[in-house]
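Quarterly update, task 2.4: cytidine-5'-triphosphate-bound model.
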Amino acid sequence: MSTPRRVVLGVSGGIAAYKAIEVCRGLVTAGVHVAPVLTHDSLHFVGKTTFDALASEPARVDLFDLSAGRDVSGGRDASGGSGGGESSTAIPHTRLGQTADLVVVAPATAKLLGKYAAGISDDLLTATLLATRAPVLVCPAMHTEMWEHPAVQANLQTLRARGVHVVPPESGPLAGGDVGTGRLADPAAIVAAALALLDQRAADPARVPDLVGVRVLVTAGGTREPIDAVRVVTNRSSGKQGHAIAEAAARRGAHVTLVTTAARPTIGEMSIVRVETAREMQDAVLPLAAGVDVIVMAAAVADFRPVTPPDRKVKKDEGLATIALEPTHDFLVDLGAAKRPDQVLVGFAAETDDLEANAAAKLERKRLDLIVANDVSEPDAGFEVDTNRVVILDADGGREALPVQSKAAVADAILDRVRDRLARIAGSG
Ligand code: CTP
């Protein structure tokens, strides 16, 4: 019989903690081995005994839980031995983290999210979260005012940028008779999300670094073209997809340079060049291009910019009835023209109409190897959102429509195709 998949179920201290019991039951019913980790605060809302009875092993609460008699590794330890004994119980957080296939935190309170985002480990659950390399799914639950607080949203943003998965809260009645967003998602939805992540992990076990030594240049974000000293014309690109590509390439061992307009944080080792305008992006990219193996132009470069913007603020009563625009230079065309035979050049096409025909025309005109086309009129694709639905076309007439998925997963899918093209080039050279 195969080893059951292992989930650490973290429960932090909110009224929704009672719903974690349903999550626990749902996972166990689906054949998952569940190791519950309760915070001290959660014990105000639920009992340890309930989880002891329903989960696959006794619930843990304390960082130094020497009383817990059972092996938290479930027979699998990092050294390949049978685990167990004193050392594993003395440091349960590392053992729990190392042996988990997934960590789920439901409910995740504002305090838990804050500590996790800040890297503070002052109890067993936060220590386990920092010690694990397994995927993590957090399911926030709190009062609407807390949910909407910029600090909570910023923490969540930080966690998302680090690859943490989130099942967002729902709208509905909250504790105390209030109604609003903040209610823990339905336990069945949390179980379904956890099972989907476990399936994904089983299908793609710890990806080997397959881009070691490859030099990758990525552009990201929408350029900002000045109207005057304070105003800009820009577009809705957030830079999320480009940053996800740079992060995925770095994780896969590439030597990455990211030229970006977006101030969002990045994970992994890379050099970052921050730019604002199309001209600045062009000036940063063109000199770097000759020295790299792969260029991914995910940036939404402005096609027009205001003509001779004044370097002072235009006053309201001076009037600004029209803004004269001039075309920017399409430097992806330059990159295509200067492309070495051993280079892979990837463009993007954000479209609202005739997606594939427009993308195919750009692929040919700009002499690209691959073009990633996305229909930005779809709610789950394109600008600002965390998911994307793309069609990848290649210079040999290949076409692949990918399902809607996270921008991180789209990034890996693009890099898989880049890796395959590099291998083909190397093989034919
Ligand atoms: N691009 C570029 N320089 C520009 C405009 C676009 O390098 N001045 C790049 C983008 O980074 C993207 C690709 O060209 O990889 C396609 O951009 P897009 O705006 O979709 O296409 P355009 O060729 O500008 O065509 P249109 O705006 O008419 O759709």
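Highlight for this quarter: The pocket of cytidine-5'-triphosphate is lined by residues 278, 297, 299, 301, 303, 328, 330-332, 347-350, 362 (CB under 6 Å).
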